């Protein structure tokens, strides 16, 4: 439990008046001020509520690569415009709960770099994440099978097969 002792100064005339009655021996008293207790409690709650980075450096690197590769796959490698790229990057960042704030800030600050890298013809998410310092040179690129290249869930075939044919005629 946090304990705060605060010295509160009274106005000189109040202390003289109170000291004549024998209540206050001098011009200062020790008091527990409600406002200061509230402030201390608020500071303590704020410190406890601060988000700590729960991601390891490896997870941060992986999420950076996943976000960039997913957006690149969404456009099929053909980025239409910087505006659409930034919009899709924001959308992708919002999907990653523990990485959301960091991702949004990084993508906003580095949107020119990301656009340039994605449109030069040899895009590698690991290289961009290295430049943005989300990865370090000792990290390894994500395995291709860990990433959905299209950025979209698999679609089911909409064609019928011989098993789908139902004979509704009565025999």
From TrEMBL:
Q: Which Gene3D superfamilies match?
A: Saposin-like (1.10.225.10)
This one is known as Saposin B-type domain-containing protein
Please report the stretch or stretches of sequence annotated as the Saposin B-type domain: 57-139
Q: Which UniProt keywords apply?
A: Disulfide bond
UniProt-listed SUPFAM superfamilies? Saposin
Q: Does the keyword Lipid biosynthesis apply?
A: no
